[in-house]
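Reopening this one. Same input as before:
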Amino acid sequence: MKHLSITFSLVIFLIHPVCSQNHETDYESKIKEFTTDTRFFAESVGSIFDHPSIPSPLDHFGTIIGAAGVMHRTSEIYGYYKALSDASPNLIMDQSGTTEEGRPFYLITISSQSNITNLVRYKDILSKLADPRKIDKETADQLARDGKPVYYLNGGLHSPEMGSPEMLMELAYRLVTDPSDEIKNILENSIVLINPVSEPDGRDKQVDWYYRYSKERTDWNDGFTRSPPYWGKYVYHDNNRDGLQVSQELTKNIFRVFFDWHPTIMLDLHESVPLLYISTGTGPYNENVDPITIGEWQAISNHEMTALAAQGMPGVFNWAFYDGWWPGYGIWIANNHNSIGRFYETFGNAGANTYLRDISRQRIAGDLITSREWYRPDPPSGKVFWSARNNINYMQAGVLASLTYAADNGATLLKNFYKKGVNNVMTGEKGKVKMFAIPAKQRDPAMAAYLVNQLQNQGIEVHRVKDGEYKNEYAVLLDQPYSKLAVDLLTKQNYPQDAKFPPYDDIAWTLGYLYGVEVQAIDSMKYDRSRLTLLSGLEQYKGNVTGEGVDYILPYKAQSGVLTAIYDAKNRSKKMKAYVVNKKTASGNDTLNTGTIILKGLTSAQAQELAAKHGLDLMAGNAGIDNAHEISLPRIAVYHSWYNTQDEGWVRFTLEQKGIPYTSIDKDDLKTGKLRSLFDVILIPSQRGGATGFINGLNDAFGPMPYIKTEQYPSHGTPDATSDMTGGPGHTGVGNLANFIREGGVLIPLEASAISIADLGIGRQVSSFSPGGLFHPGSIVTVKSRNNTSPILYGFPETFHVFKGNGELLSTAIYNRNLMILQYGTKALEDEMEYTGEIMGMKKPEDEKKEATEKKTEKSTPYVLSGMVRNEKAIIGQGAIFNVPYGSGRVVFFTFNPLHRFLNHHDSSLLWNVLINWNYLDK
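Same output, byte for byte:
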């Protein structure tokens, strides 16, 4: 009977076009009602058909999409797609994953019945075109003619940008019911994929927030936050900065879909600027993106701009927003893999309220948003009365124009997809670099395996040398479909010093540096191919135990997994004790260097399991502990505010991935006090707002604002809860934090929080300042030890590197420079330079004169290793880490973020050193 009902529905659908009364007049009149200006009305989305058996959003919800005051949670959104899939043979709904909090991801597939029947065939065509080594050009041309472009639409990634999950429901209904030639063309000549809500956890929190707090607000500029404190379990706005790490479930979901389908175009739907920005970017473009893709960005964007201009819609522009440099956005999986990755920014109100918005002073790329430019031929007025429906109209009209472009140009797009793969395969032949080698001998072999796995997650082929001189080395050959991405990830970035506009995000991501792994770029083929084996699964470096004895010795080189292993060892054996060697010591026939870790109380089997699991090579022996201190694993608290949880989420994620236990605390815990009885270390992730923001938190004029789970707002209270988000710890809380340190605790503020803590007077020996003219976007730079005996630097050489972004710095008087543990660059500050001039009243000995004459200038290491820094002389010599005594405790200030987005794993060991040696930092 089910098949019969579908057939009957299809018959009705086929005769549907001849029935003019089948227009959904109520729906259409509501579209006009909620559109605030006829110029914001799109002809292409103004008509809605009333299908007799497929429910429209109005039928299903009782309101149209974009109705005032109405937003839908994920269960409602998925429920509507389920209703469409039950009623239409043109739409398939499949679960594609699960979030950290247990909500489902779904993938919606829409196309003609013929295409739906042959999805496996079309997937196979795209898979063959993705690897040009397997087919010749003639075959590729035929496949391009036979295939269908796949257009992927990504909705709801940034949770307060609430329009796209709504719009996509109406779009889906339109695609399966509209009998127009335009829609038929899209269905027949393309396959549409929809990710309805790419951040389901955040969507539900945001909708609850809207109904709980935002819906009754009438003034956009009233200072009230339109976003909940959390979106996903861990990651906030950075959830589309996870494309290199692939650490969050929403990113993994996008990656699964991409490698299953190889979508031709991927469009990420965002909301931030008026009225519709279509991504092309100002440049500088990433030099490893194929020029074909850059041309496609322009062609598709201009088509969409023209289509909306033809409908009389103002405020559409391209070029001026974002650059096109950083490859780590989620949707850049397409640009990185020979497809086309794009995004929209429409004008959203973080809900379904209508507001008067003043945009008259807003500038993008230096120009007023209201100015007429070559890239914005029809600007908006200085103020707009803006509704959710206006946003829906712009977004959907753009998407429809884009889908039409794909349907009309499918063969060309698929040929280009194949050609980009060919260009990648030729990378090694045409470029200076022919291959990359990852030597078997590494400071941290486990991180080398991690690097290999990250490359494989990106679809990059990695080989292992199976025998001979280079046995167990890894090889990345540049004759594969994603060779340019391999080059992008494994070589330094050279961001132009003279770029006209500031970069949109980080500008360096060289994975060898970020992971602390040696990678060799080689201009010839290093290996005999017959000795190479293509990896087919994830790598794991399994450490080993050598020697004999009851103690287990780890030669410490700041391996990233050491702290995790110590926690694991404690869990394995209550008798286990760990020690850190504080100065070079003879032990039998061995010499234990400073920082060496000794594990006592483990069985041989436990030691073997520990070494294998954590990728650590241990030596068995009988080690004395005369020159060592015992490791007392700290009780760790991670502080979070209620107004900025971006970096705090990454810290929590990192600690959990590393198996490091912690307690999450907030302003109320600081105000309660008695912190030292509960914790040994308090970690304050980077958070904006400065000292004033730290003290005051959210404006208490809006309080009380509970963030707790209720029957009406079930998504709130996760991952933390409070009866009132407003206000901060106040001076009482700051005083209690100071007492925690005075009583022997260790405070570790990171990056922006280090500046705030210094400005609050905790650790008065340091003060904040902004170096004039310094521009330091996220780059990988050289640092140098100022105190080789500090446990914070155990395992690191005198000169190494860290990842550093923009931000203020800390300074201290010359007589307190011993507090500076690590500095930026290798040269000293000007006030530390040795004086070589005349000293009146003091006669210089002849031998000193001769020495000064013969002294040669030392060759310094370049400061910037990857990226770009302007006026770098303003930071060289300044402090990167300070270890400041405060009562019986310490404040360890990091002026960079060693836990940046789960990327700079090499740097994180500096923080692990603080945790390992938290009660030995005064040495």
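So the earlier flakiness isn't reproducible anymore. For the record, Residues 1-20 have pLDDT under 50 and may be disordered.
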